[in-house]
Amino acid sequence: MYDTLEGTIGEVQRIYLFLMMLLALFTAGMFFFQVSSVNNYKSYVNLQIERSGGLTDDALNHINQYSENTHNGRFSVVSDQIGERVTYGEIVEYQVEGEVKFFLFDLEDRFFTRSGSAVSQVRGQPN
To answer: CA–CA separation, 96 vs 76, rounded Å?
Structure first.
């Protein structure tokens, strides 16, 4: 009688442990997916800088709208050159600040920054 009870309890423990490991793997996968999405965001920021000739107000509006619509507002751009239009070929350096949330577990959000740069592709004099 005790052998079957111990076997049943052991089986329930293995199922519980398997489910907890599965949830931990899912949470880790979602965490790394969110971290990797910063590459898409940086690509969009580079495109806007190249098309607008810098981090102009128009480019920043497009970038913020993209962050809200695509990434739920998790990313933002910080730079000393915000609002400036630069000449053709000039490098614009910026940092992307992001927030990553853990799903299924009550852990603190993680904040990070990634540096980036883009070259202005707009010819003509800056305003």
So the answer is: 6
CB burial of residue 100 (10 Å; 0-12, 13-18, 19+): middle
Q: Which stretches does DSSP call E strand in the chain? A: 75-78, 91-100, 110-119
Q: How far apart are CA 109 and CA 127, in angstroms?
A: 40
118 bridge partner residues? 92
Domains of the chain by residue range: 2-119
Q: 77, 25, 80: which is closest to 46 by C-alpha? A: 77
Task: Name the H helices within the chain.
Answer: 2-52, 57-71
Distance CA 34, CA 85 (A): 31
Give, for all 127 residues of the chain, the pLDDT tens digit.
456 767 788 888 999 999 999 988 988 888 888 888 899 999 999 999 999 999 999 999 999 999 999 988 899 999 999 988 898 999 999 999 998 877 666 777 788 899 999 999 988 665 5
Task: Tell me the pTM.
Answer: 0.76
